[in-house]
Structures are given as structure tokens and as C-alpha cells.
Amino acid sequence: MSTLRFKAVEEASKRVPVEISVPDQLPSEYFGKYVFNRTQMSKYLSKETMNTVLDAIDQGITLQREIADHVAAGMKMWAIEMGATHYTHWFQPLTEGTAEKHDSFVDYVNGPGGNIIERFSGKLLAQQEPDASSFPSGGIRNTFEARGYTAWDPSSPAFIIEDTLCIPTVFISYTGEALDYKTPLLKSLSAIDKAAVEVCKLFDPNVKKVYSYLGWEQEYFLVDQALYVARPDLNLTERTLMGHESAKNQQLEDHYFGAVPPRVVAFMREVEYEAYKYGIPLKTRHNEVAPNQFELAPIYGETNLAVDQNLLIMSLMHKIATKHNFKLLLHEKPFAGVNGSGKHNNWSLGTDTGVGLFTPGKTANENLRFVTFLINTLMAVYKHNSLLKASIMSAQNAHRLGANEAPPAIISVFLGSQLSSVLDKIEESSDDNDITMDELRKMKLGISHIPEVLIDNTDRNRTSPFAFTGNRFEFRAVGSSANCSSAMSVLNAVVASQLIEFKKEIDKKMKDGMKKEQAIFDTIRLYIKACKPIRFDGNGYSEEWKEEARKRGLDCETSVPLIFDAYLSERSVKMYESIGVLNERELHARNEVKWETYTKKIQIEARVLGDLSMNHIIPVATQYQSMLLDNLYKMRVVFDEEKATRLSREDAALIEEIATHISAIKTNVDDMVEARKSANKLEDAREKAIAYHDTVEPFLSVIRYHIDKLELMVDNQMWPLPKYRELLFIS
Length: 731
Hints:
The protein is α+β, with helices and mostly antiparallel strands and 731 residues long. 52% of the residues lie in helices and 11% in strands. Strands 9, 10, 11, 12, 13, 14, 15, 16 and 17 form a nine-stranded mixed sheet that branches. Strands 1, 2, 5, 6, 7 and 8 form a six-stranded mixed sheet that branches. The protein has a two-stranded antiparallel sheet with strand order 3-4. α12 (364-383) packs across α18, α13 packs antiparallel against α18 (484-511) and α18 packs across α19. The longest helix is centred in the C-terminal third of the chain and has 55 residues, at 584-638. It is globular and about 105 Å long. The chain starts with a helix and ends with a helix.
């Protein structure tokens, strides 16, 4: 194994940047080349068909099946001209990735034995039937109940990968339950649209639609492929289960925004070229804080499309990384002791009249609207902070949260001192009976300075999981490997639910004779007081904050399986069902999947670590120990007893220390195996996940501790696995 390590190091050290094909056009000339977007639709669809499709996209109008036939004909013509020979429904099962089954356009005319043609009908475009029992369903689908449906999502354009036309779809069971991430996302986007429009009409009756926007920031690590192959733990779990920190990692702070290594530049450039062909508007690329860590980010877009583009870019990055002799790591914490990788979700709302609802305005009315949406968002986050935490939690992300700039596993909102001061002034304003239009206009003077404050003077807080950054909220707690749909579905749903409640309160007060502005201002002031516990601008890593958060009633749970319980709380179920996003059965099923996935992740890590410990680390450590013992024996033969004892004292101490660590590893591996056996006897998915968290997972860090100590003692030439200093610095 050590031979493999040094061969891998040698191979990695000789790498040079891979030559890439540079497009001879400007990005604007080939942008969206592989996407059946509005430009392509205008060429291949009739004007009537295109207008109907655009109405479905923009207004949410259901498409009729005959329209699907017309779209399919145009889409097939475009796809075949682009070299496509197959098509697939591209969907998002509950696996964090995507799924696809390719079918050829080839078909018989008039049944078997007839002539061959290329066929693609509206029926094939609109609906297919994958085996629903083969994907995680939480018990909704059994092996003997295999039927499920994928259904076309017209709001996300089809695209071509190599020779296959990919059609974004939802995935539902035969009995109608959602089996994917896209279905609840689309429902939550519909809910936020309807709820926000109703509130917007209090300020501008011309608003007919509200859009949810998302800008994701994708962090990732790159490791040389040869070194990756020499690390079984990276191969099987996507993270290093052992490995002592390098003497130099990120402590000099010289990697962040530093010069990008030439090999990585070549990779980044090819990713950008390909992304532009798929209509993904990548804008930013740079070194991140940790060695070998990087980031890319696009211009923000409509949330559903942005989610699909993120899933596509992750797939493209994996493929392109291989061409450049890299392995892409999207695990939230592949290396201990350095920054983990997140995927900050920058979220905002905007109207069809071009107004950003989290952007301060220039008039009292505009600023009252701004504060209304700001405070309702804070109320939603406050009421559902445990649910929002559950939406981003996973076995992987649990390693990242609360360490090296990642936010803690406590949801709070950072506003900045200036905006917090404005809200405090509103909260301390006069009683309801004293509120007049004149006073509302006076509030304009305080609020109208918000644009300057937010743009120029508001600080950033990297320990905040949910920070207001001027005209949007940055959900920083989302993990790098996650499907953004999970966080975005919850966020849009809870805000929609809160806006509905707000509108009911305003309507009631107005019905009781209160003026609209007074009703809004009065309700906002009450909300500011109610949601104050969620506001925190300080250090989220401090022990004082953890204690303070408990006192404020915020969710401080750190056990991943228990965090998932938030989906099944009475408040969550009521909220989801009231706005029609998920029903109780679907929520229970999704939690079954979450618990099972968590268990499997820890189970795999435990098996891999046990194998590496017993079959790689202990044999090497024992061999080195034997060499030291042999050296001790030889010294006693050559030197007199007094001198031999003096010379061998340090070797004897080292031998004893190695023996202690070997013994500890063996004992803990055996105990871990027994803990796993006991946990595996549990039938209930939740109880099994809890058992794996409480009784199995702790062994991983204990065993790692002893292995990492041995790494510092055993002869470097004998150590079998590439070390952090070899993995983390791309030349």
C-alpha cells in the first residue's frame, strides 16, 4: 500500500494543465446552445404554441395534452438537429442527485416489422413511468407497488447532454405522493407567489406575480485522481476518516482569493465554457479558504431553474474534473482541521413590476413594504427555526456546522447594527392610538437611509446561518453536496404561511375600522417584538450564545436524527398541509428516507474505518514496532547492559506508546462492530438512526485519534495512505 502511495504522489507531482478547447465565439454567442430555451422555441414552435407554453411558465397555466404534442414535435426536431438520438426524463429522487433512463427516438411504424422512424410524442414528453420502488420512498412504494410517474416541468427548459435530450420532470407515486425534491419546491413557489401577491396589493394593486430568486455559491475541493485512488476512505465515503493535520494548512490565510493553480484554472475555464452552453450564467470563480478548496457562483435566477442548474453544474464538474485528472469532492467536510464546503443560498423575492421586496425604497410606502416583508421573513424563521435547520441537516453537514467559519447548528438571523437599530425604533414607537400618517411619513426619514446603510456600512457575520445582506437573505448553513430544493422548499413554504397569517390580521383590523397603514404598522411592531429572539449579530461560535439561544427558546439540538423530528412537529405538519405543499403521509415518508440515509452513511463509514484500521494501519504499525524491538535486541548484543539500557530508553517508550495505540484501535473497532450489530437489530428507522448517532458514530473520532497519533510515529516510508500534506496542495 505504501508503494501505491508513493507512486500516486509521484504521478500527481508530474501533472501539467490539460489543454482545453477554447470557443472561438464570445459567451453571448453560444450561451444556451444546448438548451431548448425561448430563443429555440421561437424557431421550432408556432407562435400560438409558444405563447401557450410561455403562459404556462409565467402564469402557471396548465398545458393541455394537444399542446404537448406540438411542443414535442418542435423539441424533437431541434434535438435531432443538435445530434441527439435519445431522450430521458431528468428528475430528482430523494437521493440528493438526479436520475435518468434513456430511450431512443427510434420506433417502428405500424408495429414490429415495419419501417423505422424517429418518434417523440406529446405523451412521451409529458409523462413516463419509472420503477418507483427502486428509489427511496419511505414506504410509500413497495417492490410489489412499483408504478410511479415522471411529469414534464415546462418551467425548466429541456437540454441536451451528449446525445440525450433531458427533460426536467417531477416524480410522483401512483397514488399521487411526491417522491422527489422538485414537486414540493414547485408547490412552495406557487404558495409564496399567491401569498406575497396578496400582501403586495396592500402597497401596489398592479402586482400580479411574485417570483422567488436564488443565487447559489458552490464550494468544492479538488484532489489529484491518483492520490484519491490511493485513499479507500475518500473512494467510499467522500471524506478522510483518518489523517493528521498538515504542519501547514490554512493558518497563514494565504489561499483565500490567492492565485489559482494553473491546473485548476484550466478546469475552471472548461467548466465555464460548458456551463454557458447550458445557459448557466457563471459569474465568479476563486480560491476558497482551505487548500485545494474553490468556489464558483452564477448570476442569481428564478429558484426552480437555479436549482436545476446547480444540479446540472455539479454533474458537469464531476465529469470535467476527471478529464483534468482531478476528483471533485462535494462532501461538506472531506478534511479535518480546515474549512468545510457550503453552498450559500442567496434568496430573495421580486414582483412582476420589477420591485425587489427586500430592497428599501425612496418613499414611506415603499419602505413600509420593505419592512413588512423583512419582518414577516423574520417571523417565519423564528417560528420554524427548527424546521429550517432540519432542511439543511445531514450526516455530512453535521461535520461542517459550527467549525471553521461555517455557521453553528442554531438558526438565527443577522441584520447588522444599523438595520437592527431601525427596527428597535419602530418597536419603541408610540401606542396604536397615536399612530398617524404624519408619523408614518416621519418613519420614512429613518428607513430611507437603509439603502446607504446596507450597501456601504453593514458588516458581514460569517457565523450567521441566515444573514440579511442588503437586498436578500443568505442562507449560509446549506451544505455543498445538498440539493438546494430542500432548503428552498422549506424557506418559501414558511414565509408563504407567515404572509397568509399577516394578511388575515391586516384584513381583520381593517374590517374593525383601522386604517390600512395603521393596521400594517401596528402588526409589524408586534411582530418585531415577537421575533426578537431570532435576531443575533454576535459570535455564533461562543458558548455564551449557545446558552443564550436556549434561553430564547431556539432549537439547539445537535443530534442529526432528532433534528429531523422538526418535519413531523404539529406546527410543521399544519403549516405544510395548510398551504398544500406536503401532506402528513409524505412528511413521514421523507423522514423515513432521511433516517435511513443517515444510518447508511454512518454504517458505511464505520465499515470502511474498521477495514482500514485492521487491514492497513495496525499491520504497518505492528511491523514498525517489530523493527524497533529488533533494534533494541541488537543494541543489547552490541553494547554493555548499562549503555544499551540508556540508548534504548527512548525506543522502548516509543514501542510502548505504539502498543497502547494499537491496543486502543483494536478494542474500539471491536466495540464499534458490536454497537453496529446492536443498532442493526432495531426495526424502527428513527430508533436505528439514533442508535447509530449515539453508539456507533462516536467510535469514528476515537479510532481516528489513535490512528492519527500512529501516523506521527510510524516511519514515513511505511505509512500506507497519502497524507494531508500530499493531498491538500495542488502544484
